[in-house]
Amino acid sequence: MKIGFIGLGIMGESMSENIVKKHDDEVFVFDYVAEKVALLKSKGAIPCDNAVELAKKSDLIISMVPKSEHSKQVYTEILPALDATKICIDMSTIDPSVSIEISKFVKATGAEFIDAPVVKSKAAAISATLGIYVGGDIATYEKVKPILLYMGNNTIHLGDNGKGLVMKVAHNALVSQIQNGVNETITIALKNNISVEDYATAVSYGGGQNFYLDSKAKPIAENNFTTAFSVENMAKDIDICVNLAAECAVNVPGVEVAKAVYDKSLELGYGKEDFSATIKTVRGE
To answer: Which domains does the chain have, with CATH numbers?
Structure first.
């Protein structure tokens, strides 16, 4: 099976590299940033000049792009190259309703389509320990699961097209609220001369222990906001969750609080920094 990978950003770069390392057939790549393509070429991937060329050469097409409009653009562009011999996996985090729309016009060509967004960040993309949430036909999922396991160590099928994305935005909205709780209470601790290190240790003794704090206490203590997952990307996911909640008529005041923090963080210019930089907003910096 020949694989094509579109989108070589922070996550896609390492995800595609793992496919190149582990797959025993050709792997094609495309991105608008030439340096990204050159890097993957140096790892053994075969560069393509555009997405259509990649789609024509590939049996399985994977996309990992930033926003709903980008996913829609990719699949609209490659549509003439799709037929019953092709399988498409969009691993981007986009609006579930847009993904369902894409699935319909892709499937009309005879091609298969699933959404498979990922959780965790750059380090997990490098180590191939991502969590992967899948929406779409169960038979298609079973067919491509070995490929997904090149990139992650946990996969779960959650239902029809769009359901992987529903779970992804629910997950990230939950993380944003855990994060906000950490941001607020760690700031209280610091105001009372309790160090970040002691705060994290003390929390680990009780029911408040959480993965976010365990992984971010050291960077927060060092004011190191090198990007593993950006403020702007998390803000996008929270916006998707707010929209989804409105569609479902669900009241989400906690998500709205997190959204306000992210909106302020973007206003303060933290968009390109790691999402843990939101603590600077809570601290009033």
So the answer is: 3-161 (3.40.50.720), 165-282 (1.10.1040.10)
Helix ranges (H only) for 23-162 are 34-43, 51-57, 68-78, 96-107, 122-127, 138-151
Buried b / exposed e across 222-259, counting CB within 10 Å, b at 16+? eeebebbbbbbbbbbbbbbbbebbeeeeeebeebeebb
**Separation of alpha carbons 50 and 30, rounded Å:** 6
Cα–Cα distance, 118 to 165 (Å, whole number):
9
The percent of the chain in helix, strand and coil, each rounded to the nearest 5, is 60, 15, 30
Per-residue confidence in pLDDT tens, the chain, 285 aa = 999 999 999 999 999 999 999 999 999 999 999 999 999 999 999 999 999 999 999 999 999 999 999 999 999 999 999 999 999 999 999 999 999 999 999 999 999 999 999 999 899 999 999 999 999 999 999 999 999 999 999 999 999 999 999 999 999 999 999 999 999 999 999 999 999 999 999 999 999 999 999 999 999 999 999 999 999 999 999 999 999 999 999 999 999 999 999 999 999 999 999 999 999 999 998
CA dist list (Å): 65 to 42, 74, 85, 89, 214: 22, 9, 23, 12, 28
Rounded to the nearest 5°, which phi and psi values hold at 63?
-120, 145
pTM of the model: 0.94
Q: Which residues, listed in sequence order, are joined to residue 63 by a DSSP beta bridge?
A: 6, 90
Sequence letter at residue 46 = I
